[in-house]
C-alpha cells in the first residue's frame, strides 16, 4: 500500500471543493473527486486541474442524501488506493424561503444534504481511517456565526455541522483522528453567485464594501485553511471551527 495520502472530497466539481482538490494535489495527496450527478459543473475540469498540479485523482458520482452512495464512494477509494486519510464534507445546497413558507419536505431535503450528508461522509470515511486521519466539515457564517433571514433551514444545518464536528473530535480523539470545521464567509462560488437563493454577483460586489478586507473571498483562500487542518502541521488542532471571512463577522458596521 502506497504511503501517499488519500482525500475524500464531496462537492468537488466546483467552488471550495474543487479548489481543495487542487490544493491537495499540490501537496502530493491523491483525491477522490465526489460529484453529484445533477451538478451542472463538469468534474473533469477539477480532475484536469488536479493533474496539472501534478496530482492523481478519480471522479466518483455520489449523492450525499444516500448512505449507500456515500459508502460506495469510500469503498471506491479503498479499492483504488487502499486507504482514506482525509475526509472533506463539503457538498451542500442553498435554498431561500421565508420561514413561514418552508414545507416539511423543503426543510428535510435541505438538512438531508447540508447536515445529514456531512454525517454520512464522516461516518463512511472514519470506518477506514487510521491514526493521523482527519475530517473537516464545511459550515457557514450563516448558522455558524449569524442567523440569516429567509434561510432558517440552511442556517440550522450549518449550525448543526459544528456540533457534529466537535462530537467527532471528542469521540475519535483517542484513536488519533482529528475533526474540525471551517466557516467560510462570503466567498465567490457558484452557490453565492446564485441570485435567486443567495446574494448573486451584484450582492457580492456590494458586500465587498463592508468587509474589512475590502472584497469577498476566493475558494482557494478557504481551501488553504482546509489543507492546513488536514495536514500534520495541525496535529494538535481538533474540535475547532475556523472562520475564513476577511474579518466580516468581527467588524462593527456603521
UniProtKB/TrEMBL annotation:
An annotated Gene Ontology molecular function: oxidoreductase activity, acting on the CH-OH group of donors, NAD or NADP as acceptor
Annotated keywords: Oxidoreductase
Coiled-coil regions listed in the entry: none
Protein family per UniProt: Belongs to the short-chain dehydrogenases/reductases (SDR) family.
Organism field: Mycolicibacterium goodii
Positions of transmembrane segments: none
Name used for this protein in its record: Short-chain dehydrogenase
Amino acid at each position: 500500500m502506497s504511503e501517499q495520502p488519500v482525500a475524500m472530497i464531496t462537492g468537488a466539481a466546483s467552488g471550495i471543493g474543487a479548489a481543495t482538490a487542487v490544493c491537495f494535489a499540490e501537496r502530493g495527496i491523491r483525491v477522490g473527486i465526489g460529484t453529484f450527478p445533477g451538478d451542472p459543473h463538469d468534474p473533469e475540469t477539477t480532475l484536469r486541474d488536479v493533474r496539472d498540479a501534478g496530482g492523481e485523482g478519480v471522479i466518483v458520482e455520489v449523492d450525499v442524501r444516500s448512505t449507500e452512495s456515500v459508502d460506495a464512494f469510500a469503498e471506491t477509494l479503498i479499492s483504488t488506493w487502499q486507504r482514506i486519510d482525509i475526509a472533506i464534507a463539503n457538498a451542500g445546497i442553498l435554498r431561500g424561503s421565508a420561514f413561514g413558507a418552508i414545507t416539511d419536505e423543503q426543510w428535510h431535503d435541505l438538512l438531508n444534504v447540508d447536515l445529514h450528508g456531512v454525517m454520512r461522509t464522516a461516518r463512511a470515511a472514519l470506518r477506514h481511517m487510521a491514526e493521523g486521519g482527519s475530517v473537516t466539515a464545511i459550515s457557514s457564517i450563516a448558522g455558524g456565526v449569524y442567523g440569516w433571514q429567509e434561510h432558517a433551514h440552511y442556517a440550522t444545518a450549518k449550525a448543526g455541522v459544528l456540533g457534529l464536528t466537535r462530537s467527532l473530535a471528542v469521540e475519535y480523539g483517542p484513536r488519533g483522528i482529528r475533526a474540525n470545521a471551517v466557516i467560510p464567509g462570503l466567498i465567490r462560488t457558484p452557490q453565492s453567485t446564485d441570485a435567486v437563493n443567495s446574494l448573486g454577483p451584484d450582492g457580492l460586489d456590494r458586500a465587498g464594501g463592508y468587509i474589512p478586507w475590502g472584497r469577498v473571498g476566493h475558494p482557494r483562500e478557504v481551501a488553504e485553511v482546509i489543507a492546513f487542518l488536514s495536514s500534520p502541521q495541525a496535529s494538535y488542532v481538533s474540535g475547532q471551527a475556523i472562520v475564513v471571512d476577511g474579518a466580516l463577522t468581527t467588524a462593527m458596521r456603521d
